[in-house]
Amino acid sequence: MAKFLAELLGCALPGKGASPALESKNCSRVGLKSSTKQKTTIFSSLGSEKSLSDCKKDQPWKNSAYSAITPVCFPSPLIDKPIGKESMPQTPPFSAMFDSSGYNRNLYQSAEDNCGGLYYHDNNLLSGSLEALIQHLVPNVDYYPDRTYIFTFLLSSRLFMHPYELMGKVCHLCMEHQRLSDPDGDKNQMRKIAPKILQLLTEWTETFPYDFRDERMMRNLKDLAHRIASGEEQTYRKNVQQMMQCLIRKLAALSQYEEVLAKISSTSADRLTVLKTKPQSIQRDIITVCSDPYTMAQQLTHVELERLNYIGPEEFVQAFVQKDPLDNDKSCYSERKKTRNLEAYVEWFNRLSYLVATEICMPVKKKHRARMIEYFIDVARECFNIGNFNSLMAIISGMNMSPVSRLKKTWAKVKTAKFDILEHQMDPSSNFYNYRTALRGAAQRSLTAHSSREKIVIPFFSLLIKDIYFLNEGCANRLPNGHVNFEKFWELAKQVSEFMTWKQVECPFERDRKILQYLLTVPVFSEDALYLASYESEGPENHVEKDRWKSLRSSLLGRV
Q1: Where are the beta strands (DSSP E) in 477-526?
Q2: What confidence tens digit (pLDDT) does each residue in 512-559 have?
Q3: Burial letters for 26-49: b for 16+ Cβ neighbours within 10 Å, e otherwise?
């Protein structure tokens, strides 16, 4: 995991004439502690060099549908109806959980909070001891925690303890407060508190289901659920059963998804190796598989949304877990950092970039390479209009790789005005100001969507990771008095909850199995093979390139 994180934060999107591993400018978020030391990130300066067609006249740009209308909210993914006779507190969906400052202004205090180790300012919870925050999570007869708080604490608590440790403490407090361990306890009190405990467990299993892959978590959950279901109310048993079945389905789907990823990874091969052993086995290119750029953009969106859907919110936190200063033993996730789905999504971005470069460098004829470049420019533009910014940036990244950008004779035949506009939209200057403006427009369009197609927002994922990384680096987890810095975690939860809203969108486009199969499994060139194909297409221009060409021909083709 440490190696992956180093690669993630050290890998930059390529500028022209670069391979995908360059440094970029460090653009810290406003309001965060800035570091004087320049940090390597996953972002390069795409706009740091001149465009491929600075001397060409720009063509008119197709207007996108990012207009601002009155916002509405997605329905809550949690249970909509009260579980028992007592109505549950009404909690907002992800898209309405946080206001513009990152706080829920209606967060209220329970009777014990004034002396319970929690610090408020203007009715906003800013800090507290870990034990007090845990107690604030557990409902009682007169209190149920706000959903904003539940999400924020469950997300951030793993920086200080394992989820199974938190679940153990929650179970203990529930039994202590509500006397669930006493068969002779007040049945009326049980009737009032059981649905609230069940609601808390439901929110946990719905929002952070991957926590329950740990047998210790599942054991605690089953124990507490059994105590609730063993009461006289039949409704409790039914809802406990529904909660467990839903959780098991989610975990089964995750296991199946991981098996598919493993199968794809095991069958992947370098394209040059395949061509040498079976030269007739790869005659198709991506245009023969799908000649329509809009259809290709739709299928890319299918891949993006499927992979986004399996990323758990906790993975954003677990990717950056460090040692808790008050924990003398170890970081709470030193055993293993569970970020496999996040890593798989980053790997997909890299694959798409290399696929684009491979398809461009493969054709022998210059006019075919130029046609391929124009095809991907059109696909990228359709991705922008759909709201698929991650595929858009992966395509731009692939076309900016050195083996592609050095093909000057090929680019001379390409109408690049549309490409220049796309690069302008994703220009990293001013902390990706143009992209962030487009993303806000897409997010607003999603909130006011009249069709499922307008709901799609797929962010440039590496930039989202970068924002969360700098938020984590710029603010301490604990204050000097040992309190948990909850103000930081409000902001963290705000960013992650927005992502949660976007990843729940179902892809409205019809699946094309043939195109998807090609995108996910067709072999792509390695970086060396890309350079060799590029030199074979347009010969070396200097002694350095000539020496590299000879070396690559010798090592990859066995020729002198």
Answers
A1: 484-485
A2: 999 999 999 998 999 999 999 999 999 999 999 999 999 999 888 876
A3: bbbbeebeeeeeebebbbbbbbee
